[in-house]
Queue: 2 jobs
Job 1
Amino acid sequence: MTHAALLAELAACIGDAHVLTGAAAEPYLTDWRQAFTGRALAVLRPANSSEVAQVVRLCAAAGVAIVPQGGNTGQVAAATPDTSASAVVLSLLRMNRVRAVDLDNDTITVEAGCVLQTVQEAATNAGRLFPLSLGAQGSCTIGGNLSTNAGGTQVLRYGNARELALGLEVVTPQGEIWHGLRGLRKDNTGYDLRDLYIGSEGTLGIITAAVLKLFPLPRAQCTALVAVSGLAQAVQLLQRARAGFGAGLTAFEVMSLACMSDVTRAFPQQRLPFADLPEDAWCALLEVSDHSDGPHAATRLEAVLAGALESGVALDAVVAVSGAQSAAFWHLRESITLALARAKACVKHDISLPVSLIPEFVRATDQALATAFPGVALRVFGHLGDGNLHYNLLPPTGASNADIQRLVHDRVHEAGGSISAEQGIGQCRVEDLQRYKSALELDLMRRIKLALDPQGLMNPGKVLPASGSLRVP
């Protein structure tokens, strides 16, 4: 079948207005970081899972690859096509319905194109909490969140996206629909297909809908911004917070003072509520959820912070006295990525390590980078509560970004950590995955890919190399 004939059949399936080519397709072809721009045969915008299945069947018959795309907010260009113009981009943004809310079962069923913030608001309107929370929540979609097993700021209490999903609806590479939208918390009937698709970045099939867990709305949330002299002290503060709040500790973020300074320079309307901190200081952002009331939450938080200040673990602390001040503290944290986006040369890492190893890892790796690349500037922040750091840096002029990344990832691997904690592999980290995964792990991943997608048409070149190099010996 010629490409022209395929496009005609696709238009008959989903409508001419939703087969985009030329200038209309361009907004879908560049990743969020603007590091990769691809080309596509067309951008397709189906309205429901049946149309997705029809599209996949047509493309499979024509041997045309498919790049699924949600909000296109990812950091590793997993939803961006290559430059061959031989694939279609399949946008799920029209599939944005909340299908059902089951309060007795504490679940919400949504389509993959639902924006995360829309799901949060639907849960709140029903008197429940959907806890997945990301800086991009106003534009990222549930399908993208699940395909990358997104983390965010409340993993410490509620887990990653995988822990928040009970059932899925998936279109397979053959254009079949797996109707797995079961809101069951217990189901031991064979292999867990749900967990196979979550985190696979669209390389095994296309998630079109999901049943997600809901939780009781906390009666009160209390936020504090705390200054500490280093990461070792931040870990000590984390242990005090865990002991003091247990499951009530819903977030524990850390940000270097350099990151905070970038934010206040880029966005002068934002202010850090501390003065005269040492240059190597860090800030910790704590959030406590309470099912009693606001005064009870504040009293518990102030008691833990008072002990930290008296012992010298903390240098200073400010407890938010209003929702507006709490939002301002979170806005500081969420603006770091935007501030760094202005530094086009930023080299980003999304690593995870056991919390106990993080202070020494950062100290030693900072030193190794300074020795190997004089003038390097570190910009480190992240989710200390679950061991995930965004270990970013601004390289000196003339330095090789690839050499910098190799140094950092080698040290992460040696320490038993992960080179991708929550952002995925996409096309940015394919070579790294080949370097650090064991031969057996890679072989098992290839076998799964070949079994489910023998034509290699699902998001080729993401996570694993393109199909031509996937043959199992």
Job 2
Amino acid sequence: MTAELPIAITPGDPAGIGPEIVARAFRDAPQDLRGCFVAGEPATLRRAAQCISAAGDTSLPVAVIASASEVAGLPPRCLPVLPLPGLPGPLPYGQVSAEAGRAAAECVVWAARAALRGEIAALVTAPLHKEALFAAGVDYPGHTELLQAEAARHHGVPLQKMPVRMMLANDELRTVLVSIHVSLRQALDAVTRENVLRTLRITHTALARSLGRTPRIGVAGLNPHAGEGGLFGREELDAIAPAIADARAEGIDAVGPFAPDTIFMRARHTPQRAGEFDVVLAMYHDQGLIPVKYLGVDKGVNVTLGLPLVRTSPDHGTAFDIAGQGIADAGSLVEAVREARRLVRG
């Protein structure tokens, strides 16, 4: 992958805000979106462009391209779309449907395979709707798992040989998750010495590459007060602390486990105070994502670590309740594009 190759953007669920935030990003941040194109369905993107111009804003022409290489010759403030075969035209806003779920997944699969073949530099994915995916018979709960399966298939290895993790990041905080889209009960069971150590390795490798130095990793405990010496649970003693010791023996700068109700404040970077850690390792989905999203979803970016490709995404969902109104904020998508460029160059 090189910085000269184009970046593919997938429009997400066509019934949600994905297409319109993609259109808004191309219109309002043309310099950031140079060298990007959308893999999707042209009529859906035209509708999105019309949606954001309904209030009298500057129009956005849609340029249908035959190959990703055509992007370099296009002017700014247009929306390049590479049509994918078999996708439905515009679907009703705000409605969960198997047709929408299938269309969204097919765009992601196409972009993932193009990235794995080295035809694009990275992919940036607008939000999927998990119920729509399920209705379409897609056997993955989200982007992370779908991309993991495509990468494993491409390299001819079992799924467990392609471990991936989710990182949520903004200007102030990064957090990586030990488990992703599973129930809380399953997430608790996933806090094992092996899983925590594997997550530390993936985090160390990915951030060392992007930061250009050894990252400082702060590890959150699972239980209140990080277990209080075993009074509130033994996961810290039996799994988390041993995994940290294993990681440190490998040269990974990991410390903890620390109380989960304070570690994120300690890691937060502000103009007044540098954080103690470059990233926090969180034990489950909501533990890690709530602090990042509380700081503002307009700047949050989702990065999949461990893949043999660069993938980023906005830090929000499909927002069916406001889809089609032309009011969705494209800030997080623009940040995802910027982060994808940084990762490609890094």
